[in-house]
TrEMBL record:
Reaction equations catalysed: (6S)-5,6,7,8-tetrahydrofolyl-(gamma-L-Glu)(n) + L-glutamate + ATP = (6S)-5,6,7,8-tetrahydrofolyl-(gamma-L-Glu)(n+1) + ADP + phosphate + H(+)
Reported cofactor(s): Mg(2+)
Sorted UniProt keywords: ATP-binding, Ligase, Magnesium, Metal-binding, Nucleotide-binding
Gene Ontology molecular-function annotations: ATP binding; dihydrofolate synthase activity; metal ion binding; tetrahydrofolylpolyglutamate synthase activity
Protein name as catalogued: tetrahydrofolate synthase
Signal peptide span: none
Amino acid sequence: MNKNETNQWIANYRTDQPHFGLERMMKLLALRGNPHLKLKVIHIGGTNGKGSTIAFLKNMLGKMGLRVGVFSSPYLIHYTDQIAINEESIPEARLETMMVDYRSLLEGEHAQALQGTTEFEIITAIAYDYFASEQVDVAIMEVGMGGLLDSTNVCQPILTGITTIGLDHVALLGDSLEAIAEQKAGIIKQGVPLVTGNIVPEALAVINQIAEAKAAPRLVYGEDYQVSHHESMETGEVFDYTSPLRQGRFQTGLLGLHQIENAGMALALLDTFCKEDGRELASNDLLAQALEETSWPGRFEVVSRRPLMILDGAHNPHAVKALLASLEERFADYHKEILFTCIKTKALEDMLDLLETLPDTELTLTHFDDGRATDEKVLKKVAYSRNFNYQSWQEFLDQKMTENEEKKTVRIVTGSLYFLAQVRAYLMERKN
């Protein structure tokens, strides 16, 4: 199979809704010799902040000289970026070869037993398989959706982390913070340490209860480790970190006030991993360098300075609140022009209610070409009813990248990460 054939083949397994359950994953991985059980895994779940926390953690572990496998989704640049070791994505030829192997399983004598397998399950299985064959020192696995029944949740991790809890995918995970917390807490394993981020009390109570029942030692944000914001620099956020194992001042390579919480959680995860794995703690200097060098596409990412344009994957109300806090802190005296869209399973109206609270802001809705995207008619109707602009995103970008500004202006392209992948590719092509 060539690249186009493999892409078309795996696209046949794509679904709008996840097929929750771990039975197919267990069967699929058993046929490959259970690679997921041969790895030291750090398993990270949560509503928001997973990607940035993992980016910080990966960089710090890499600076310590470890080979670090990372599985994350969705991808923003190349399909292969979902599976990477240190900074290197899985080679396309290797991914194609592995897809051929998985195709023979899914279409061969085991086809009946594996019926209903999804694209996400296949790519998760390939990630476990690839990391085991490459004998990474540690694999960081990001939960796709929920936790309890997510396809990544077949591992026996050395450490787990839950970043934040917010209302997201409510039709699938539950319509209360407590219900969502219960799903996310499904990744907690018997006796395995758990690090939690800045989580609201009602959700944290559910997580603590499940952790206690599983005798999982807990490191809690604000109790067992603390972060405090010192100042915002053009290149990142300066913060102080305190825990029984480490104190110091650090700077993030990512912009946005919420990034100090993600970096703080990454430090807590790193030190816990070192303790569990019998490793010496790394020096503050080494970790400071790793944090400062961290980049992560689509997270308050400045893609152009003149004109000023930012991409941010604020794809649920919790993430929109974080985006607004960062905009108010950094760009309070700027005129803001926001381009927004989201996928069908997201709380469109709730996010727009929040975006409307931002002063001196012009909102434009748009649609992007993806089966998961909110219907164009719905977006146009909402734009009309709320007196927003509606425009094709390509036209918006072409216009905003060339027009002269009458006042200090910042443009923010936000909403679905699937949408940002298309925007980013378009802007890079335009730049070239």
